[in-house]
Input
Amino acid sequence: GSKHATTPADNYYLARRRTLQVVVSSLLTEAGFESAEKAAVETLTEMLQSYISEIGRSAKSYCEHTARTQPTLSDIVVTLVEMGFNVETLPAYAKRSQRMVITAPPVTNQPVTPKALTAGQNKPHPSHIPGHFPEFPDPHTYIKTPTYREPVSDYQVLRERAASQRRDVERALTRFMAKTGETQSLFKDDVSTFPLIAARPFTVPYLTALLPSELEMQQMEETDSSEQDDQTDTENLPLHMSTDDSGPEKENASVLQQNTSLSGSRNGEENVIDNPYLRPVKKPKIRRKK
Amino acid sequence: MNRKKGDKGFESPRPYKLTHQVVCINNINFQRKSVVGYVELTIFPTVANLNRIKLNSKQCRIYRVRVNDLEAAFIYNDPTLEVCHHESKQRNLNYFSNAYAAAVSAVDPDAGNGELCIKVPSELWKHVDELKVLKVHINFSLDQPKGGLHFVVPNMEGSMAERGAHVFSCGYQNSTRFWFPCVDSYSELCTWKLEYTVDAAMVAVSNGDLVETVYTHDMRKKTFHYMLTIPTAASNISLAIGPFEILVDPYMHEVTHFCLPQLLPLLKHTTSYLHEVFEFYEEILTCRYPYSCFKTVFIDEAYVEVAAYASMSIFSTNLLHSAMIIDETPLTRRCLAQALAQQFFGCFISRMSWSDEWVLKGISGYIYGLWMKKTFGVNEYRHWIKQELDQIVAYELKTGGVLLHPIFGGGKEKDNPASHLHFSIKHPHTLSWEYYTMFQCKAHLVMRLIENRISMEFMLQVFNKLLSLASTASSQKFQSHMWSQMLVSTSGFLKSISNVSGKDIQPLIKQWVDQSGVVKFYGSFAFNRKRNVLELEIKQDYTSPGTQKYVGPLKVTVQELDGSFNHTLQIEENSLKHDIPCHSKSRRNKKKKIPLMNGEEVDMDLSAMDADSPLLWIRIDPDMSVLRKVEFEQSDFMWQYQLRYERDVVAQEEAILALEKFPTPASRLALTDILEQEQCFYRVRMLACFCLAKIANSMVSTWTGPPAMKSLFTRMFCCKTCPNIVKTNNFMNFQSYFLQKTMPVAMALLRDVHNLCPKEVLMFILDLIKYNDNRKNKFSDNYYRAELIDALANSVTPAVSVNNEVRTLDNLNPDVRLILEEITRFLNMEKLLPSYRHTITVSCLKAIRVLQKNGHVPSDPALFKSYAEYGHFVDVRIAALEAVVDYTKVDRSYEELQWLLTMVQNDPVPYIRHKILDMLTKNPPFTKNMESPLCNEALVDQLWKLMNSGTSHDWRLRCGAVDLYFTLFGLSRPSCLPLPELGLVLNLKEKKAVLNPTIIPESVANNQEPVNSTNNHGQSVGFQNTFSNSQEEEEIDMDTVHDSQAFIYHHLNMLERPSTPGTSKFNGKMITSEFSSLCPSFLSHRPGSVYFIPDFKALFNSKEQSSGEMNMHPVSAAPLSVFSKESNSSKHSDHHHHHHHEHKKKKKKHKHKHKHKHKHDTKEKEKDPFAFSNSPASARSIRSPSLSD
Output
């Protein structure tokens, strides 16, 4: 749609420009030039166009200044005067003998002002508003339609969405990993349909196998915190944070808590735990030098 | 051999008593995997003429031996390094097994033997005669040990501590000799001082109390000093060194736990339960834990999951788990409990001899069972007993019997308590691992039978008595003769039982302990309405291998309308029929409740039963008080009643198995009802799932409604509003968790009329995977997801192949495509977010193999081989290897078989090596009666070499190789080999020659004449044709002669050993070599025999040592003369030797030389140039600095 709306406007602009060029050229001929460089003509055309535009703009300002919408002759005159043009000379110039008459540009179609989208019927003026007043704008600009999307409360849809989202993420992620790294394939002739990320041995295989993955740790944290909310035990929080890196299993945390509370309650009895592995390492006995 | 008479106590097979041993390891090099140290044994001679001390030592390089600070000569001879000689072309397993058993007993400490023989310096003879103390000091080192000590050194940057490098002792039965010289017997107890100097960042964990830890002078290392004051056998000594994290048990401060770096949170959780096990055992045994401390160490690349040693246990690190893991928790707790039970019986109380092993294994297994009962409940306990019983029964019926108490008399039949087996059961080290596992299983079952007989109370009293005797003895620090009270023997144990209980359990012992085999009952019945009698017929099969006849009481429980009644039948020789009077008349009044065995009264719908009979169901031996298999016939409705109303889980499981044969709507209903019943034991419900699947498949044409279990699953686990979506995971209820895991796996076994998995079921499982949501769950869902993949694999059916087209993506079945999508995604996600123990990878690998096997995906082992590499988690490796093993079998791939066998030889992890052989044995590429392109001579040689010499560092592995060889080739000569070179074998024992048994089957089968082969060994000698008894000309394989001679010599010596055990022998090889060595001209070196002179260490070459049979350490002429004299004289049991009879001895020697020479002649020349320096020539030739003079 937009393409069709702009093309006539472009045409019009081009036509006008061409007319102005003809005007400039005839004026030049009138002034006695035999020929002109294209650049010069262009410059003059530009100047002329600017001048005319300025007249139009200025005239419009004057007209609006006096609370009108249509410029009158006097607006043009004031404008011309204001631009330093001697208006008196204009009739004479217009009637000069050697003037050339230029045919009006063949405007095939008037520039169609793109019609604003009209949604619904414009409201007619109520009786107390005079008829000259502008019409009401389109209803859509002022009518409030209460729109709300139903929050997706349907369990099934939610689950469905969560499932497919997760699946998409996983698939995209693994495909990416497979694309960027080494792969193995179940089919010799096809390596892309079921790409398997290549098995890579670990230096310490038991660590990844035994320690909870980051995701699981995160989940544990979430379930932990939700459970701790119930306990309204805010003191646990810093402790909990401190054990994050060592695997925040709930029971570990609670064991830790127990330990600390135990040791805290009988502070001095810490050394009751007499375990030989906790004892300090002894310094070697000084051997007598021979 | 060293069986004591009666209960007089323990008679040591050794001429000395060990009282104290020091083990000091000065240096451990993780980079080079080497250990340097010394041991010092304090021994008291028990005979006046002790002049040789035999010790056990393998792998160790021994630098120097001193006795009371005097240099001592020693000989190193380990016949187990190479069981049969290279030259031998014998390839039959019978021969090998005999030779191997002989080799093992030649170094068996329980027979007073050992690999290392130390000569007591002559200066000390007088000292010895006064029975004064000797201190034997041995400097040794270990370089890259292949067994006994296992080094784990991750290949990465950083110091050894940062890398988590560690080392630990391991092995099968008594394996301590692999890492330090000792008396590697469970019956030689002594106190210990253990010292380990390790890097300052490391911790050394060992037995007993850590007395102190001291820095070395440079402060870069520290020495851990341990004292073990409770007399302990060397075999129960252990060591673990690594950068361990230390956790003192919060409940019991004398208990310390160790784990590898970063695993501390897991360790805390895993061990948080241990104190309860302690409490339990101490309570039932009414006995404190015998040691003053206890240590648990969790290490990587474990040899076994649980290894118990004195006051410490070594566990696999893979037992550690976090609180999120459900499935591993009970398994790990069971391991902890097992380890602790063995602390009491196995470590603290040791055994007198191998034939008493069953008592220890039995008691520890039995009290472990009591713990199970208390912890997991009676249902779990009975289920476990049933499982163990089924296992042992299946194994015995398959292989022909497990003998708990092998008695090896001196008689002729001594070798044959287990002639059905392809290995000797005389020694733990010759036993197949599977046999040993089953042995342990049977031992604890028999203990339970004893309990049934004498009551648990008495049983515990007996244990308490054993323990209190032992602890009294252990506190007698200076009365080492008392220590034998800490050893348990079969007779001692039985005597205790009869003292405590006053009951005679001899028949029971005779039946289950002294005899192998299980009982096989067939039962059926008829109801005689007129007499109102149940006519029960019980038959036995006691002719099949592995069975025995049972005579004695047998309990039968009959559930009638009026209640449950127990009857004890007397099973006798010829009575098959038993009349059992019924209590109730067949029912008219159907309103009354029916009383059950447990007193409960229930309403039953009796419409299904036979209107004429009051019998609901019958059970034979419901308490499992006989080791038996029962095949009982009763009608389907009786099984259904039994399933629904019998409260014993074993009965329910039996009923489920029986119902498989009755695919009727009634069975379906009974199973479905059980499935839905929440009070029902979860394992029974899980079993019902599989049975239901089977029934549904049998009923496929008449099945109505949705696929079996689908609606049930939906009701139990899916959302109310949207039944196609499973609820978000919540595994708080473990019973339903296990059911939720199992049901899809069973459902995937459903098949439609085309024998395909119904599309509906597949989509159902895929939906379960799709909608699986664990975000709100307290527990990990890795096992659940893994089982969903298993379910996918179960749904796969063989591909329909159109004229053998090649499998490509284009012709991929759409269902399989869906399955592959899931597997791919799961497997890839594992790389990013690995699951606990990589359970999902394991399941994916298995599923891929299933797809390959069913022809959906091209069969290719490459993927599995990459996952089988070292560096993957052990479970993943095993799964991958299993797939490779399967591929090898299905595709008959020689290349893969070779790849596997290479791994058996070279893999760094002993468990993997063992497991490959185990899997190959269980799923062999071919068997002895099968034609296979894989079966060729090279393979025979390779496997032969593997078991003959390649696996001498690991007894379990060697036995595994023997098992595989047996599976592939059987007992006799493999059929793919060319005919043996000779048809005759000399049987020197019976002094006769027989046709070589290895070729008999062939010559009969192929009707081929035994070939007169040329003797290519170059030892054509004298007497070959003197025994010819067939028309062919035979030659004697001198190897056979030689080896069997060695074997026989050994045995003769064992049997005829004079009462002075100091004169016991090496095996025959040793002796013959002594004779040949008399000729100085034979003094040339031969690989394997090394002359060792203390001051010439350079001569000592480890390579030679490992391949060789003996190492000689002549110090001086004088002591050695006695040395060889003894070897001489010991052959003559009548000869009482003295110390100063050189001239006599010389004469003797000449005689012997002569005697042997005519047999060994030229062969010995090249073979045994070994010399004792007492021969006049050699004394001069060896440049031995005389230390003694």
About this structure: The radius of gyration of chain A is 44 Å. Residues 155-213 of chain A form one domain.
